[in-house]
Amino acid sequence: MAKEIKTKEAKARAALSGGKGKRKKWSKGKVREKLNNAVLFDKATFDRLTVEVPKMKLITPATVSERLKVTGSLARSAIKYLITLGKVKTVNYHSALPIYTRDVAEE
Q1: How far apart are CA 7 and CA 10, in angstroms?
Q2: Which of 12, 15, 69, 95 is the 20 to 30 A CA-CA neighbour of 34?
Q3: Strand-pair partners of 90
């Protein structure tokens, strides 16, 4: 079988139509929207803390943070405050996920 003779234009077209003509474009990744949580309690949020949180069945720093739109560290300290008042009791404490519940004897 004899080699096929190509012109320069044919060779250029063949080179462009090859597999490496278009490279894959990498995606920028998924972007989560930024939470703008409060780092200090204002009067309204503190009142909601003392009223709403003791009524919740499952209390974790994540649920308090999400419900009141405060940071996680502020939610942890708020739960400790409610424990000292006797409105919340510990179910299971682990540094990764402490679990609390309302104090039913208080009602």
Answers
A1: 5
A2: 95
A3: 100
Residues 103/87, Cβ–Cβ less than 8 Å? yes
Task: Decide if pLDDT at 61 tops 80.
Answer: yes
pTM of the full structure: 0.68
Alpha helices in 1-107 (DSSP H): 8-16, 43-52, 61-68, 72-85
DSSP 106: G
Which of these, 82, 81, 76, lies nearest to 64 by C-alpha position? 76
pLDDT tens digits, one per residue of 68-89: 999 999 999 999 999 999 999 9
Q: Which residues pair with 47 in a beta bridge?
A: none
The pLDDT of residue 79 is: 95
In this structure, the chain runs to a length of 107
Q: Which amino acid is at 94?
A: H
CA-based nearest residue to 79, from 96, 102, 107, 106: 102
Please name every residue paired with 92 in a beta bridge, in sequence order, or none if there are none: 99
Cα angle 63-33-45, degrees, rounded to a multiple of 5 = 40
